[in-house]
Amino acid sequence: MICASGARNVSFNHMTQKKDTDPKAIVLIFVKRWRCELLILLSALLISAAFWPPLWGLAVFFALVPGLVGARDMSLGRLFLVAWGAGYLANLFLFYWIWFVSPAGTFALPVYLGIYLAVFLWGVEWLQRRLSVPRVVSAVFVWPLLELAKGWLFTGLPWFYLGHALYRWPVLIQTADIGGVVFLSVLIILVNVLVAEALAGEIRPWRRRAGAAAAVFVLAQMGYGHWRLGRLETADGPTVALVQPNIPQDLKLGQTERESAKIFAGLRELTLSREARRADVIIWPETIMPGLVGVPDYWIANGMTAGEIAREYRLRGLIDAETEERIGAAGLDASEAIVLLEAQSGIRAEEVLDTSSLLAATARLAGRPLVAGAIAADPAGGDMISRYYNRACHYDAAGRLVKYFDKVHLVP
Fold first, then answer.
1. How far apart are CA 173 and CA 170, in angstroms?
2. Which of 392, 405, 365, 403 is nearest to 276 (CA)?
3. Coil, helix or strand at residue 182
4. How far is the C-alpha of 309 from the C-alpha of 347, rounded, in Å?
5. pLDDT in single tens digits along all 412 residues of the chain
6. With 60 labelled, which of 143, 202, 310, 358 sits at a CA distance of 20 to 30 A?
7. Kind of pairing, strands 385-395 and 370-379?
């Protein structure tokens, strides 16, 4: 069946002249008219669905089958445009969370990422029609090249490769030790194109063999996974406490100084809890620490009450509980409390209330190593900042910064 615009219009007009109002007939007419487009759209939806609940990850083994079948009966130009639109929708679903970071980016980024599905389907068909390259051969070369390009072009966005969808299925991802996640994607594409070859057109012996080959590749992948996992030598590792305060994304991005102080207080409370201190190491989420580290910063401190500042001094062993209680009950504002605390302890507030100092003190108070996500900055002179980093800070049990790791590529 050739999905040519003219042929479809003739069939549709002929049917409508009969004034058939049967809903089933209307649906059948619609499906017949837009069969190729619907198949490509189905592939896009299956690709996005593969990254959702656990069982759906297996959808990657057949997600591209409808698109590969539908692409055979379309003109190359129309194929590219339809696949681009379908790719746009797939990435819109996958990157929906960007709305909380950049509403405009939510709709702009899929315009670029949708091109990859279009180039894949168009490229496979162009190579088959113009150069007689078998689809099985072209597909396993075109797809990995596109994934590598996506991870490199415009600084790269190596997210949602097909192989990533199997992250909940350890037995199916062990082949990544041969060639990384891209090699895993190659195996997935090979299964997809073999199934598409088995389903497209007339049933012939070689098409049956293509379907059998797809099953063999999946079984071989599972067999290798079982063999590889069976050879692993495991040992008990450290007990890890994961601190998760469940802060809404909009609050995390647009918090006031007072809200930041409350968030930090919540993190501190969870970290010093009996459950967390039973662990060998405590881990905070990515960029969860309010304020900035690496530069003098008092964003959290500016949101603290007099009582909270006095408590911080007491926890550091700089004042006693009686002094803390007296200052908290005096009805002082934060600046008045700081004057009294500095006089009482002989320690300047900047040394106690700096964001980096608050983070280090948390590890020391817990008596456990702490790995915390924070935003770091490089000073550019004065109060200016030259660059920001997404940083993971590792503090030892004494509150000393042991190591830190900055993301080299912030995406999106």
1. 5
2. 365
3. helix
4. 13
5. 445 444 444 444 444 444 556 777 777 777 778 889 999 999 999 999 999 876 678 999 999 999 999 999 999 999 999 999 999 999 999 998 888 778 898 999 999 999 999 999 999 999 999 999 999 999 999 999 999 999 988 888 889 999 999 999 999 999 999 999 999 999 999 999 999 988 876 656 666 687 788 888 889 999 999 999 999 888 889 999 999 988 877 676 678 999 999 999 999 999 999 999 899 999 999 999 999 998 999 999 999 999 999 999 999 999 999 999 999 898 899 999 999 999 989 999 999 999 999 999 999 999 999 999 999 998 876 667 778 889 999 999 999 999 999 987 766 5
6. 202
7. antiparallel
**How many C-beta atoms lie closer than 10 Å to residue 332's C-beta?**
20
Count CB neighbours of 21 within 10 A: 7
Alpha-carbon Rg for the chain in angstroms: 29
The single-letter code of the amino acid at 299 is W
- Reported residue count of the chain is 412
pTM for the structure as a whole = 0.75
d(CA 273, CA 270): 5
> Distances in Å between the alpha carbon of 347 and those of 161, 319, 338, 351?
53, 10, 10, 7
Q: The tokens of 388 are what? A: 């920001």
CA distance 57 to 52: 7
Any idea which residue has 């881990």 for tokens?
Answer: 283
With a CB cutoff of 8 Å and minimum separation 6, the contacts of 79 are 40, 71, 118, 121, 122, 125
